[in-house]
Write a structure and sequence with these properties.
The structure holds two protein chains of two kinds.
Chain A (H helix, E strand, L loop, with lengths): L6 E12 L2 E7 L11 E7 L5 E7 L9 E7 L5 H9 L5 E8 L14 E6 L3 H14 L5 E9 L6 H10 L3 E10 L13 H9 L6 E6 L1 H13 L7 E5 L6
Chain B lengths: L25 E2 L20 E6 L5 E4 H5 L4 E8 L4 E12 H5 L10 E6 L4 E5 L9 E6 L2 E2 L9 E3 L12 E7 L6 H4 L19
Parallel strand pairs in B: 1-5, 2-11
Antiparallel strand pairs in B: 2-3, 4-5, 5-8, 6-7, 6-11, 8-9, 8-10
The chains are: A alpha/beta, B mainly beta.
Amino acid sequence: MEKIQWQIARVKAIVQETPHVKTFTLHLPQWIPHLPGQHYDLRLTAEDGYQAERSYSIASPPEKTGEIDLTVELIEDGEVSSYLHEGIEPGDPLEVRGPIGGYFVWKDNMANEPLLLIAGGSGVVPLMAMLRHRAKIGAANPTTLLFSVRTADDAIYRDELEQLAKQDSQFELILTFTRKAPPGWTGYQRRVDQAMLTDVLKRFASHPNGFVCGPTLLVEQVANTLSDLGLPSTKIRTERFGPTGT
Amino acid sequence: MASFFNKGFGRKRESVSSERIPPGQYETRDFPVLTAGPTPRIPLTTWSFALEGLIETPIQWSWEQFNALPQQSFTNDIHCVTKWSKLDTHWEGVSIDTLLEHVNLKPEASHVMAYSYGDYTTNIPLDDLRHGKAFVGLRFEGQPLAPEHGGPARLVIPHLYFWKSAKWIKGLRFMEGDKPGFWERGGYSMYGDPWKEQRYRSDD
């Protein structure tokens, strides 16, 4: 097998998604179509040769050829994320390799099966690639995204997600605000719990493919509760995301 | 000087132990959890651990029998393919050498498929499990190993990336030749040496 080579991408655009999250559009000299859910490794090199590497999920669908969007949350004290947020401008070079990962991916043969996406915070990024790809291929499978965020400020891609939900009767967006809901909010205002997951699972006529991504605690609790509620563990794919935290 | 470098980027974390951190890794003080799916619940009354495959007589231990085996303390650095390394982790458990004293391996046995509750598998060359290189961990930092970290028992092979250290270990199957396990089928390295940065199959 040929080595997944490092390549030097160019930053084409930077979008401030939320106060702590930016999306970097990278133009790749050797672009390879990815599967939604896959990631790229990104490597920073200092002038003295010191290197730091992190993995970032791809937010864009494979239909966006020649480039990828990496959505990066600024981590307090994060060596790589803080440089990306503060030191990088359009036109700058960045070294990446990918796409990587073959398990936490939404494959086209799942396009006719119901889909349950559950995200905490920046865990929404790989799920967004799935939703964008799903829209591009015109899939009509029943799909729900349950998205847990602290405040309205933290809801990455919220406008696009609401737009998608408006346009597509088979896609439902459920937001829950764990710290502070926006004024007039009548939906969920708590952490994802068993009652919420029971309610979400009820919407599906058959077992959905489940993808859960977010901070460790959320992923552990959600995956284990889904399993308790009868979703077969082979249907539950998990990925931990974001800072290692303590 | 590096041929390519990112302007203005420099080391932010002072690491006193950088010679213990393999390339591309960073040190973390906490213990992140990474799994492909839900955490299996394994009642100790039905837990068992088996050696099978290319051995003369397969053997199986209950939780009680396994805990009665000679145990040792281990202090190791561990390295996860998702880039974190954790130094000086303290474990107690049963050395694979101790387990192998109970069986006669067939001469053609060259590799092992470790298999777990929850159907996880991972492949390891036999020699990487022997001579003090690997153990079944039962306690971590003085406490019974938590389910999310692989409890009640996980394989620990500190010199390879940590996905080789199968959580919720159920047994070892001795094989002739190598075969990919769960992540290996998904494109990860067949061997996983952190010092050679063998993350993906194409790095082998």
